[in-house]
Amino acid sequence: KQTLPNLGITVRKVDPSDPQNVAKAIDKKTKPVFIETPANPTLKIFDIAALARVAHQRGVQLAVDNTFATPYFQRPLQLGADIVIHSATKYIGGHGDTVAGVIVGKKEFIKRARNEVNRDIGAVISPFNAWLLLRGLKTLPVRMERHSENAMKIAKYLSFHPKVNWVSYPGLRTHPQHELACRQMDGFGGMISFEIKGGKKAGETLMNSVKLMTLAVSLGDVDTLLEHPATMTHSSYSLEELHEVGVTEGMVRLSVGLEDVNDLIDDLSQALKKI
Ligand SMILES: Cc1ncc(COP(=O)(O)O)c(C=O)c1O
After folding, report:
1. pLDDT per residue as tens digits for the range 140-191
2. pLDDT tier at 1 (50, 70, 90 boundaries)?
């Protein structure tokens, strides 16, 4: 909204569910097409291979934010993407104690990112934070398996709950892009979004009623984190902007942790009773 226009970069937002929308938005000045899949916080899935084809046909690179899936569950470069980014603050660090990022791409591109952004602007990770990431990476596969297993059970539980309107989790057959998720991902990850009946007020009640889960805006932690996008991560958005990014007032985002899943379901159950 601000940073890129301040740098003289025009951003065009299009819905990448249909790669033709992206194709139409590319002009002579377009540099990268940037997508996030699964998307935050809707958990929509976009077709990396199809979008890479559309971008390449027009001589443009495809960059993918792979934070939610992690390299354990999704490898965009193998699907045709050119650049991959991760907020390593999330699953790669894995313990909610580090702020870091990763950019993956061809040597020349990384050289420029390192020299022009890291060195000249100063986005440099501290040695201790780098060490925390390396330590986190050692358990990434086991953590992701457990995040995913717990998330699937919670998504199923929520989808039958009378106070829940809908659940968005790529592992559910009811997810509109479930088949695509099966094709391009090896697992579905630990992120779920769902809508509770009663809008914003119900969202706030749920946030204030959980006991085991932590109310926090980050994600990818060993602990389960719960947040209400309309009043937290997206509180600066107007109603129109919320609608544009698919955030409803009763939407809740859950980053499922590594706890015993029955304890998590018990916690959600007692909190949903308060609504
Ligand atoms: C998908 C995704 N990408 C990037 C970011 C930005 O991460 P960081 O805060 O580590 O810069 C976030 C943060 O929430 C995110 O969820």
Report:
1. 999 999 999 999 999 999 999 999 999 999 999 999 999 999 999 999 999 9
2. confident
The string of pLDDT tens digits covering residues 190-204 is 999 999 999 989 999
DSSP state of 171: T
Q: Is the CB of 101 under 6 A from ligand 1?
A: yes
- Answer yes or no: are the C-beta atoms of 84 and 77 closer than 8 Å: yes
Strand order across the 214-215 sheet: 164-168, 191-196, 251-255, 225-227, 214-215
- Measured between alpha carbons, how far is 25 from 11 in angstroms, rounded to an integer? 10
Domains and CATH numbers, the chain: 3-137 (3.40.640.10), 140-273 (3.90.1150.10)
pLDDT digits (tens, 9 = 90+) for 70-86: 999 999 999 999 999 99
Q: With H, G, I as helix, E, B as strand and everything else as coil, classify residue 139.
A: coil
Which candidate, 270, 224, 271, 232, places its Cα nearest to that of 251? 232
Nearest CA to ligand 1 atom 12: 87
Question: Which one of 3, 34, 35, 40 would you pick to mutate in the ligand 1 pocket, going by the greatest count of ligand atoms within 8 A of its CB?
Answer: 40
CA separation for the pair 1, 43 (Å, rounded): 21
Q: Which two tokens stand for residue 54?
A: 């559309």
Residue 27 burial (10 A CB sphere; 0-12, 13-18, 19+): exposed
Question: What is each CA distance from 59 to 23, 70, 164, 186, in whole angstroms?
Answer: 11, 27, 44, 29
